[in-house]
Each structure stands twice: as C-alpha cells, then as structure tokens.
Amino acid sequence: MHTLMSNTPVTEALRAIRERAGVGVREMARRLGMTSPSSYSHYEDAKRFKDDYLPMSWAIRFADALEPSGVDRTEVIALAGVDSAKPPPDVDERISQLSPRRKEMLMSLLADLEAAEALDLERQEKASGDAN
C-alpha cells in the first residue's frame, strides 16, 4: 500500500498533504459534504483503507477540497496511481485511434447531443420570452 512516487502508504501521504495545508479532519469532512469526520478519516487510516491507491473519484474530490488551501491538484491525483508527468492524450489523438465504425458512432452521438442542446436552448428562449 504505497504511493506512486514513494514508499509512503497512500493513507499517510494523504494525511501529510492535508496537514501541510493546515486543514483539520473535521474541516476536510465539511469541505467534502460529509456529516461525520470519521467518514473522511477512513481514507487516512491504514487499518481501514487497505488499497494501494485512492479511487480516482475520491482523489478528485480531495483535490477539489484541498486546492483552496494551496495544494497542487496533481499531488493529490497522484494518490490515485496516476503518473501526472504524462499528459493525457488530446481528443483529436484519441479520435484518430478509433476504428471507422467507432468514429461513426461518436459522430452520431455528437449530432444527437448537439440536437438536444439546440432544443434545450430553444425551450429556454421560449420560456424567457413567455416570462416577459
């Protein structure tokens, strides 16, 4: 149970990041919308949290909660096992790697989303016109 960059368990690394930011457990739980500090402290307790890495969804939430205190998001995201040194591929690169069939499916999906967005915009404009 160690972080990507060191031999420090993810639970200890998370605690160190939070403490360095000057955020208490109770405040961290509040920032995350948790009703109990023990709900958050689970992720800092090696006896309770035994995974090698944080779930990505929680790493993102923790990063969101700690960023206002000056913590670099990539430091927290790294606790999910992501190598922040390698940037994710851009959209064009990802699309270029799709099969022709998948590209067609993607274009169809985009067309559906654009049509739905146009319809929503039309409804909003009509509703705001009706309100005037």
Automatic annotation (TrEMBL):
GO terms for molecular function: DNA binding. PROSITE patterns: HTH_CROC1 (PS50943). It comes from Paracoccus shanxieyensis. InterPro entries: Cro/C1-type_HTH, Lambda_DNA-bd_dom_sf. It holds the Pfam family HTH_31. CDD domains: HTH_XRE. This is Helix-turn-helix domain-containing protein. Residues 14-44 form the HTH cro/C1-type domain.
